[in-house]
């Protein structure tokens, strides 16, 4: 199947951020797949360290044109590249032969959209002089990009993790512009446990002497790789679960060589007597590959945006924030996810119900933790596909409210001995 | 009530560690409360960063003698001091008018017992040349200290957290020497999630340039306070729970002043737009007070000992490891604890049952996370008191096996959406 692909960076001109500061020129890198027919646009919102490169579409203009044309300081490599390839594409759940699918790298990130690593008007990288960004800034930048692309009302906004917060922000901020909204593994706000871990992660970055107050972009300067690597390791702990870590690693020693600490962290003589475990090897590998693809200041900026997001801000409640939205909502959550819990999605479902929005909360039984929304496409795809075409009445779409026995039951509700309680 | 108090440091002479290395002279700092009658000794094992200073006993020899005589590089201040004051003391659950209660600072720590910060034979601090330590080393050092004090068989060994592993090691290593064993909020081994977080914490320390390969004790040298502070913050995230963090902090902004990052971590210009939250303020405060009382190398050493501990090592199973133990066991666990879970204590109870040891697993319903064993004395005290005097038949002692309905039920068993599953 031939699907048109548009990969580009748009200059949206002057952009004023929620903080009150402006940049004279906001560049936004995006990818768009398929043909816009006036009514079939879907915006996909990426997660914290994701990119606009949702899927590995070959260019419709032939393989020779398939070169990546993004003027990005880092290419969307590794886990940022084709991050939802099993979900978005020709014939897939978000079918690019049917829908016009747009994904844009968020302001503050580092895959071609303006952020701390971008060039400021003075020709130097912005560093921490780049204005602080919010999820609301992301939404407003996406709105302007879509205007630029000639897209008015969206058929749907779909996003995972903080991308799901981005999707929620669309339903609150531009309620008339969205027919269907799909926050996947998301929440109305982050809980204090995750706020705490994010705060530690940021301190790991700013404590790295190479961070240097955010000024480390010079050719002669070392990057704060150790701090950023530590931050990423904490992220991965949040993305997995006790069950998935037990399955993946157990307490096994790593076969892969290397001293405890891998390549990135200093060797520790006292460690020599003890095994270098699989779980350490995994975390070290994740840290090492992440620092090659992501900017440390962007990590500070984007985690702050995530931590700051609160659907109810400026309203009396989540339900009030969603009061003007007249579309339908599908919430997808995963039982093993402690970063964005099933309980949080259920609270969100209640808010939609209270504001009389047709909503379905589809709970996926999974041990894969937060990563489930990326690694369980066969369970995410069917409800998403059917919701996009049929709404909450879609065949594969289930809802927690369908069976009152389940609501408050052990399947997903808060249990006392759980981290999810409270 | 007058209770004799003995605070001292014993030189146990040459000590060979599990790793094969020896030190010519192992100093062990201890406190002992009450009078030994030949049959009433209880060993209390402290947690990771605890000390021998279990409780605030005044000296039986009069207030004038009450000065702390411990020759410790750091006094057991802050949370290391009088850490179980509500449990141990005259008339308390571990009644020092009835029992002779001994607690010793473990090898590798920094409260007077030999460790990386102690002086090596060459007159310089050991640093990372101090031999790696294991929980087994702790037990063997305690055995030698007790020999020195004239104590043979113990009435009981009681310990919380990794101190509970220490207590388990007693039951396995010296089965004839212990009548009753009480692992509190403990486990037969740490799970991979906690292993991962500990590994990140150690990397935070070794990445701090002031750590300097473990050589930072010089008067002119800065200490690796930022790395140790980050490690401690990760510890506190593990000690709390989602519920307790929601209760304590919510998403509130801190009243206490200070830029994001507190005093210890560099200011971040990009943070100015966002609130400094209660949860951050708490974590920064914990980091700041911890670095004043604990040694970074000790933190590396003791977390490695904890991570390495495995009751079944050298045996076919946990039950086999406990096969020679002929005493009784009380396991205390807390429903909100995800560092050492109720499920892990239940697995341990099964191992005791399989090896035909009279055992009770007393589950305390608590939202306080792992900290519960320290902050819920009114719920820990009664079963502990009754077990010490009556064994598993003690009145306030409950057991999960008493009600089969509960075993595997929602009260504490693994639930699918829990971090504790798997």
From TrEMBL, chains A, B:
It is an enzyme of class 2 (transferase). It is found in: Cytoplasm. It catalyses: L-homoserine + acetyl-CoA = O-acetyl-L-homoserine + CoA. The keyword Acetylation does not apply. GO terms for cellular component: cytoplasm. It comes from the Archaea. Residues 392-422 are annotated as: Disordered. Pfam families: Abhydrolase_1 (PF00561). Its EC number is 2.3.1.31. InterPro entries: AB_hydrolase_1, AB_hydrolase_fold, HAT_MetX-like. Keywords: Acyltransferase, Amino-acid biosynthesis, Cytoplasm, Methionine biosynthesis, Transferase. Residues 41-377 form the AB hydrolase-1 domain. Homodimer. Transfers an acetyl group from acetyl-CoA to L-homoserine, forming acetyl-L-homoserine. PANTHER family: HOMOSERINE O-ACETYLTRANSFERASE. This is Homoserine O-acetyltransferase. The gene is metX.
């Amino acid at each position: 199947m031939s699907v048109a692909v548009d990969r580009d960076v748009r200059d949206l001109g002057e952009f004023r951020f929620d903080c009150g500061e402006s940049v004279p020129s906001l560049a936004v890198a995006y990818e768009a797949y398929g043909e816009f027919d006036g009514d079939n646009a879907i915006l996909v919102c990426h997660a914290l360290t994701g990119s606009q490169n949702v899927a590995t579409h070959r260019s419709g203009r032939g393989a020779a044109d398939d070169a990546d044309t993004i003027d990005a300081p880092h290419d969307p490599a590794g886990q940022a590249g084709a991050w939802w390839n099993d979900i978005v594409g020709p014939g897939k759940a978000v079918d690019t032969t049917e829908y016009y699918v747009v994904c844009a790298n968020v302001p503050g990130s580092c895959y071609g959209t303006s952020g701390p690593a971008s060039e400021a008007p003075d020709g130097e990288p912005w560093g921490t002089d780049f204005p602080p960004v919010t999820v609301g800034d992301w939404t407003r930048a996406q709105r302007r990009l879509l205007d630029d692309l000639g897209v008015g009302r969206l058929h749907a906004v779909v996003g995972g993790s903080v991308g799901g917060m981005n999707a929620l922000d669309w339903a609150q901020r531009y309620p008339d512009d969205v027919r269907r909204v799909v926050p996947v593994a998301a929440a109305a706000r982050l809980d204090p446990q995750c706020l705490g871990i994010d705060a530690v992660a940021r301190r790991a970055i700013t404590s790295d002497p190479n961070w240097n107050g955010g000024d480390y972009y010079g050719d002669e300067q070392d990057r704060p790789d150790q701090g950023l690597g530590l931050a990423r390791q904490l992220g991965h702990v949040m993305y997995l679960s006790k069950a998935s870590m037990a399955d993946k690693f157990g307490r096994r020693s790593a076969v892969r060589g290397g001293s405890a600490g891998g390549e990135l962290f200093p060797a520790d003589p006292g460690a020599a007597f003890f095994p270098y475990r699989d779980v350490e090897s995994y975390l070290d590998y994740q840290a090492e590959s992440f620092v090659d693809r992501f900017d440390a200041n962007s990590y500070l900026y984007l985690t702050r945006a995530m931590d700051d997001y609160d659907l109810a801000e400026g309203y009396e409640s989540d339900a009030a924030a969603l009061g003007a939205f007249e579309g339908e909502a599908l919430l997808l959550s995963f039982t093993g996810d402690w970063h964005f819990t099933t309980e949080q999605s259920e609270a969100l479902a209640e808010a939609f119900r209270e504001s009389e929005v047709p909503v379905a909360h589809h709970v996926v039984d999974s041990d894969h933790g937060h990563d489930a929304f990326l690694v369980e496409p066969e369970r995410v795809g069917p409800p998403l596909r059917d919701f996009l075409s049929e709404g909450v009445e879609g065949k594969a779409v289930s809802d927690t409210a369908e069976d009152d026995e389940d609501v408050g039951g052990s399947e997903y509700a808060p249990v006392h001995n759980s981290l999810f309680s409270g």
